[in-house]
TrEMBL record:
PANTHER family: GLUTAMATE SYNTHASE 1 [NADH], CHLOROPLASTIC-LIKE (PTHR48467). Belongs to the ferredoxin--NADP reductase type 1 family. Its EC number is 1.18.1.6. SUPFAM superfamilies: Nucleotide-binding domain (SSF51971). It holds the Pfam family Pyr_redox_2. FAD binds at A32, L61, L97, W417, G424, I425, I426. Residues 23-185 form the FAD/NAD(P)-binding domain. It is an enzyme of class 1 (oxidoreductase). Its cofactor is FAD. It catalyses: 2 reduced [adrenodoxin] + NADP(+) + H(+) = 2 oxidized [adrenodoxin] + NADPH. This is NADPH:adrenodoxin oxidoreductase, mitochondrial. It is found in: Mitochondrion. One of its GO terms (cellular component) is mitochondrion.
Length: 511
């Protein structure tokens, strides 16, 4: 490749530089990338850090993942911006690893590369009908309401049904449920994308089902987020009382709790009788004792149910459905290729069994899979497909992980969801970055990482990108986007009005 030949020439030029700094490239400008960059800059006075991101905008999950009604979580971008403005740090947006620049090229140009590009795909359920229209990954829906340019045109149909079914009961599922159910007047004051606000204002969705394959004690959400969704104004909460039954006698230890048997049940929406569940959830007491958060979640759910006799100003309903997993998505009879219903299976936890028969009925035209994000492998990166992570120990990338032969990729590190899987809050990445930094520092001390063979770093990268006509978006250029979004937001009395297409974003940069 001609341009790459040019880059090799630059590389040779730089080998004669007398006191070159160690040059590190961080791939991904989300929390993992920025925390890593910040920590490297603090720990090593002579290191230069360049952060690249495939989007023209920085901050990854903070911008595209954090819900618009959680502005306090986004304050961390001030800290990230300070890091980006450090004279030893640069941000280059609109630079995609794999197409704008390959990993081998980056490794040639930098002394070290830290991969922190997160998880931009989704786990799948692997069941029939998953490809039907009307079924979305929660990530896509989140990107849509957060104005991610890749999901600008998602256009979920919120008008043809009054019911949305969300699979999974983690915090992402709760975010999605909250956005679907929260009064839009409240959302209008947030930085929600305007196309999403308009669609939600016209939405017919009145009922949201949150379906979990385990019980209320195992629901993957945290108490704060649960409290928030339960607190939505004029919302009726439905939980089958039998799902909340626990007994103190069960002595199943926590490690034994896993799904054992699946029984076929039927379709959503399900109406069942309490008496069918008398054997359920007896293990839960033990698990609650072991875990304060689980206990709190269970307590909140127990108290949340809206009494049947309560006055009914509520326009909207949130149903928590436990011990169910989707078995098959069913095609609509009226709309070819479109979701018409969901067949569920009943799940039973080990050690406890319940027979079940049910009269069930129901239709669903909107379904969201919130069962976890997934990282994508690039180039020849050592990748554990089962776990969806780059093979690593503590952040050092392993080229060979066989038991008798542990070999690291020199100068290649990983951080964030790509390193440990898609779990944890923004702050978790701080500790993750510290661990990766420790590997880098250790390799500097051991002489594995040195600047004895100077690398071209950012000059080489920019020259290469220029030769490929890549329009790099620097941090200064991002600040133009930022200012424009704030200006537009100001006109609508919201923190920012996000630019949501690639064209708009790049246009503002070049103005
Ligand atoms: P998560 O917390 O791992 O939850 C995934 C959910 O999907 C669980 O309920 C899980 O059930 C279920 N699931 C997985 N595979 C399934 C399958 N094959 N069939 C049916 N259900 C399945 O993931 P997440 O909600 O995507 O969140 C990712 C991370 O971001 C979490 O650590 C979360 O706390 C964090 N986050 C935090 C906030 C916040 O702090 N406000 C907001 C959003 C996200 P099992 O439990 O049975 O596996």
């Amino acid at each position: 490749m001609a341009s790459f030949g040019k880059f090799r020439w630059i590389s040779r030029q730089f080998t004669t530089h007398p006191s070159a700094p160690l040059r590190i490239c961080v791939v991904g400008s989300g929390p993992a990338g920025f925390y890593t960059a910040e920590k490297i800059l603090k720990a090593h006075e002579k290191v230069e850090v360049d952060i690249i991101d495939r989007l023209p905008t920085p901050f990854g999950l903070v911008r595209s993942g954090v819900a618009p009604d959680h502005p306090e979580t986004k304050i961390v971008t001030n800290q990230f911006s300070r890091a980006a403005r450090n004279e030893r740090c640069s941000f280059f947006g609109n630079v995609c690893l794999g197409s704008s620049v390959t990993l081998p090229e980056l490794r040639e140009m930098y002394n070290a590369v830290v991969l922190a590009y997160g998880a931009e795909s989704d786990r799948s359920l692997g069941i029939p009908g998953e490809e039907l229209a009307g079924i979305y990954a929660a990530r896509e829906f989140v990107w849509w309401y957060n104005g991610h340019p890749d999901c600008r045109n998602l256009d979920p149909d919120l008008k043809s049904t009054d019911t949305a079914v969300i699979f999974g009961q983690g915090n992402v599922a709760l975010d999605v449920a909250r956005i679907l159910l929260r009064p839009t007047a409240e959302l209008a004051r947030t930085d929600i994308a305007s196309h999403a606000l308009a669609a939600l204002e016209e939405s017919s969705i009145r009922k949201v089902y949150l379906v979990g394959r385990r019980g209320p004690v195992q629901a993957a959400c945290t108490a704060k987020e649960l409290r928030e969704v339960l607190g939505i104004k004029d919302l009726r909460i439905h939980i089958q009382p039998a799902d909340l039954v626990t007994t103190p006698t069960d002595e199943v230890c926590r490690s034994d709790i896993h799904l054992l048997t699946w029984f076929h049940v039927g379709y959503l929406i399900i109406h069942w009788t309490d008496s069918l569940f008398v054997y359920m959830i007896t293990w839960a007491k033990i698990e609650m004792k072991n875990n304060r958060i689980r206990k709190r979640v269970y307590e909140l759910l127990s108290k949340a149910v809206t009494p049947a006799h309560a006055p009914h100003p509520a326009q909207r309903e949130l149903h928590f459905v436990f011990f169910r997993k989707p078995d098959k998505f069913l095609e609509s009879n009226d709309r070819s290729g479109h979701l018409g219903g969901v067949q569920l299976e009943k799940t039973i936890l080990k050690g406890k069994c319940a027979s079940y028969t049910s009269a069930c009925e129901g239709l669903a035209w909107l379904s969201l899979k919130s069962i976890g994000y997934k990282s994508i492998a690039i180039d020849d990166l050592p990748f554990d497909s089962d776990k969806g992570i780059v093979t690593n120990i503590g952040g050092r990338v392993l080229s060979d992980a066989s038991k008798d032969h542990m070999q690291y990729e020199t100068g290649l590190y990983v951080c964030g969801w790509l390193k440990r899987g898609p779990t944890g809050i923004i702050g978790t990445n701080l500790y993750c970055a510290e661990e990766t930094l420790a590997c880098i520092s250790d390799d500097v001390v051991k002489g594995v990482l040195t600047s004895n063979s100077p690398k071209p770093g950012r000059d080489g990268l920019l020259q290469l990108l220029d030769s490929r006509n890549t329009r790099v978006v620097t941090f200064d250029a991002w600040e133009k986007i930022d200012a424009e979004e704030r200006r537009r937001g100001n006109l609508k009395n919201k923190p920012r009005e996000k630019l949501t297409t690639w064209e708009e974003l790049l246009k503002v940069v070049s103005e």
